[in-house]
Amino acid sequence: MDRRAFLKLMGATMAGTAGGSLWSPRLSGAQGHNPEGKEFYGILVDTTRCIGCRRCEKACAEVNGLPIPDISESTNESVLKTKRKTTDTQYTVISRYETDSGTVFVPRRCMHCNQPGCTAACLVKAMKKRKTGQVTWDLNCIGCRLCMISCPFDIPKFEYGKAIPRIQKCNLCWDRFNQGGLPGCVEVCPTQALMFGTRRQILEEGKRRIATGPDKYIDHIFGEYEVGGTSHLYLSSVPFEQIGFRKDLGTVPYPEYSTGFLYAVPFIFVLWPIVMLGINRATKGNGKGKDEHHG
């Protein structure tokens, strides 16, 4: 590579980066559907119906080939004493909260944001927002973990203990969905605390339940507007901060906060190797010239 070719490549790369053509964050889905108008699918979680049986945890493990948890009553009593987060081997977990209105059980899994911060942050598009709303992960991940720090719900988890680690999280049973099946957690819920459907359907159902049970529910569906909307929605009998939900998320999709930084990341990742290659070639060229001169 001569100096002219190096400068030409640098110029083309900078132009591409400035124009956002290289791994640019993709903003879509603010209204609960993709740009083609196809509706997102999701889950309505009615925490007033959840009994903390943890069958959803077991079903999730079975569907995804994960370690099967012991969900006997004696074990549940011990497990539910701790407020838990999802892990690389537990994509769904239930926590118990003592509130002003009594005990409330809250299942947690990926929120499948309408405009996910994780997919916008992913440099190689391993994290994808599917046209039907599911946020999935592919094997071309380079392990940068930007998805982890970009998630407002602390969901993507890294397999730190494995030789070839991957990012792990709920994908809303993407494979089962493509075969016409329900997510494993929804299928086994004995109290219908989980409802699967299009985001429009579950949002309408959530509003219907609030309208017909004003003494049972607070007038708020968590996920309708938070971070630009999610495909995983919650109903509750108590303010959401009492059951572990953040109040400071706002309604702005997270990719809008990180767009400037994320445009800079490709610049760094793409240009730095090219700069080093150019310096390397230039150094070798100079050395060759010196050798020839002195030979």
How are the SSEs placed, and which strands pair?
Elements: H1 3-18, E1 41-46, H2 55-64, H3 73-79, E2 93-99, E3 102-108, H4 117-121, E4 127-129, E5 135-137, H5 146-150, E6 157-158, E7 167-168, H6 174-178, H7 184-188, E8 194-198, H8 199-212, E9 232-235, H9 254-294
Parallel strand pairs: 1-9
Antiparallel strand pairs: 1-8, 2-3, 4-5, 6-7
Question: Any overview of this molecule?
Answer:
This protein has 295 residues and is of the alpha+beta class. 37% of the residues lie in helices and 13% in strands. The protein has a 3-stranded mixed β-sheet, with helices on one face. β4 (127-129) and β5 form a beta hairpin. α1 packs antiparallel against α9. The longest helix has 41 residues, at 254-294. The two termini are 23 Å apart. Mean pLDDT is 83; it is low at 1-28 and 285-295.
In short:
The protein is an alpha+beta fold and 295 residues long.
Widest beta sheet: strand line-up: 8-1-9
What's the total count of β strands? 9
Q: Compute the average pLDDT.
A: 83
Shape: globular
β-sheet strand percentage: 5-15%
Rg, Cα atoms, Å = 24 Å
Compute the number of helices.
Answer: 9
Poorly predicted runs of 5 or more residues: 1-28, 285-295
Structural class: alpha+beta
**Main β-sheet description:** 3 strands, mixed
What pattern of helices and strands is seen along the backbone? HEHHEEHEEHEEHHEHEH
Helix content: 25-40%
Distance between the termini: 23 Å
